[in-house]
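Blinded run. Sample ID left blank on purpose so nobody reads anything into the name before looking at the predicted structure. Input follows.
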Amino acid sequence: MADGTHRTRAFKIALIAMMTATIEGGKLALAYVPNVEVVTLLCAAYGYVFGWAGIAAVYLFVGIESLIWGFNTWVLTYAIYWPTLAFVFSLLGKYNVRNRPVLTLIACVMTVSFGVLSSLIDTGLLSGFYENFWKRFSIIYTRGAIFYIIQTVCNFALFIGLFRPLVDRIEDICPQKFKIRKLKTKNYINQR
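Blinded prediction complete.
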């Protein structure tokens, strides 16, 4: 029995490492295209299927990013946003929400919130919480708006087309004991 427990733990550690590596690899593979990314898709899918293990992989991804690129205000943005995204999708996975438009809408709202959060943190930490905060925030947010629009459109396309097939494939190949428990929900949530 103890040997089985050790194997389960080792498998879970390897699973978290694999999730972390695919998030980092996906980010680096698309790094040359501004704000076209698969990090949102992968963080959401891993949170959706694996719950806390997916969230742990996202935290490791944030740590690796910090080691590669150094520390600045974006580290705080990443440390708040990516685990929150994985957590939101872990709740959706736990309640077995499978409706593509609902999942896509939530992903797009979360993507828009990334731009807002990033601009709020940059405004507050780089220029301080002094007078004219909202004026400075609007300047910083407007300056990055085209990137936020590209990122949102990219995630809309990825989620509408790839999220469900990716999640279905992960659920097919992964043993049940590593997935979060799905709760029974009303039929209107589970429609395709």
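Unblinding after everyone has recorded impressions. The longest helix spans residues 145-173.
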